[in-house]
Amino acid sequence: MSGGHTQIVLVRDALDMEIIGETQDDAVGEAFDKTAKLLNLPYPGGPLVDKYAQQGNPLAFAFPLSEMPGFNFSFSGIKTSILYFLQDKSKHNPQFVQENLADICASVQHTLIKMLLQKLRKAAKQTGISEVAIAGGVSANSGLRGALLEMGEKEHWNVYIPRFEYCTDNAAMIAMAAHFKYLKGEFSEQTISPMPRMAF
0.70 exceeded by the pTM? Predict the structure, then answer.
């Protein structure tokens, strides 16, 4: 499972990989960052949501889980529900966010992790895999790391989680790839277009 463009990738060997599920809108990392923005936390907000979540009650507030076919994800619905939730609560109490920041973060994080792991468990059961790894910036999230280890123990998976310092955002990986291209003198014309959903 990777976070930058949230995907579930089935890896049979180094040359045989298949994307079996992916987000249909924002990545989960964007959901964390946009939640942080709604809470007036600085960018990048994901690590701050995680920090406050560790001090809060993950069941304090309920947010809806998006249902998508197969192993696909959607995170736009939860972002909208968080926005309306905060607007409604703040109308009655302008200090609501400040007074409930830890519980809001814990509840949002709990919901996002639940969405990820439900799909991952479903994919594992249907494909028969028992070797599970996560990567990308969101793999640094302490809630996800803990929940995956717990699920892995229950499901008898071998779980692989990168050390915290290797849980970098995809931008760093792209920059490093560009660095080596630059050293080799490999440049592209300015007429090329980005391919955010390039075929794997």
Answer: yes
